[in-house]
Write a structure and sequence with these properties.
Largest sheet: 6 strands, mixed
Helix content: 40-55%
Distance between the termini: 52 Å
Structural class: alpha+beta
Number of strands: 11
Strand order of the largest sheet: 5-11-10-7-8-6
């Protein structure tokens, strides 16, 4: 059970990071403990708890929590399970992972030795952080790495799904990469600019076809397909990504090390 102190710390951190779903998650199931006259905390059963000892012990769990939440936007499902995962090792290895890379918005060569499949949310700041890191990785590895971007808008982000549909329509017109970059750089304008204005900014001149896609459902179908794939994979927050089948969550990873090691591994097998 979480103490009131933990709840306050985590709520403040979540507000700072924009992870609103965490606030709601912690509000549910938080122990409604209050200080007694003796200065101890009393839980609902009336048991007194040594605040010094328990607070010291719980600080460890808070630090672990902050290290994970500081790198990912979490959905409200199975978050406590996610917190127990190591942020430095893959969550698991997926057999047949290439099926996840076969569909989505690809940037990079099909024959690249390393493929990174990313499930992301445009309104998640940590998805943006990962995007910037992956762009740096692309500059380093060039044709040795390819990226497949797959939409996984979280329910707590009001305009994330609309942005995903707009991006999917840009991809269907063969204009994904610039549109993708502009959306990640322009999230503050979501709801203020139309998706058509973003499209023009990205150099999409065929606005008729683009608007037909937005209204016709093709973009929505592509997003729904990505969300279904993410659920099959067990995605619980964004960003979640695969590097040649190894699953990672969050943006706090040494991507140069992770991807570079796989480039070397593939080179040795050839």
């Amino acid at each position: 059970m979480w103490t009131v102190l933990e709840s306050l710390i985590l709520t403040a951190f979540a507000k700072q990071r924009g992870v609103i779903s965490v606030i709601h998650l912690l509000a549910v199931g938080t122990a409604r403990r209050s200080p007694s006259k003796s200065g101890r905390i009393v839980d609902p059963t009336g048991e007194q708890i040594d605040t010094v000892k328990e607070t010291r012990d719980r600080v460890v769990s808070v630090i672990v929590f902050l290290s994970v939440v500081g790198a990912a936007c979490l959905s409200a499902v199975n978050v406590r399970t996610l917190l127990l995962r190591s942020s430095t090792r893959p969550l698991r290895v997926v057999r047949g992972w290439t099926s996840y890379a076969a569909v989505g918005s690809r940037v990079g060569p099909y024959r690249a030795p390393v493929t990174v499949v990313v499930f992301f949310d445009y309104q998640c700041p940590f998805s943006r952080k990962l995007y910037l890191a992956l762009e740096e990785l692309r500059m380093l590895l060039h044709a040795n790495v390819a990226f497949v971007w797959r939409h996984f808008p979280l329910e707590g982000h009001r305009l994330a799904r609309e942005a995903a549909v707009a991006s999917a329509c840009a991809d269907l017109l063969g204009e994904f990469e610039d549109f993708h970059r502009i959306l990640f750089g322009g999230t503050a304008a979501f709801g203020k600019k139309s998706w058509g204005e973003f499209a023009l900014q990205a150099g999409i001149n065929d606005t008729v076809r683009y608007n037909e896609c937005l209204s016709g459902g093709a973009g929505e179908e592509a997003v729904a397909r990505d969300i279904a794939a993410g659920r099959r994979l067990g995605v619980r927050g964004t960003p979640t990504f695969l590097i040649n089948g190894e699953v990672f969550a969050g943006a706090g990873h040494d991507l140069v090390h992770l991807a570079g090691r796989r480039v070397r591994d593939v080179g040795r097998r050839r």
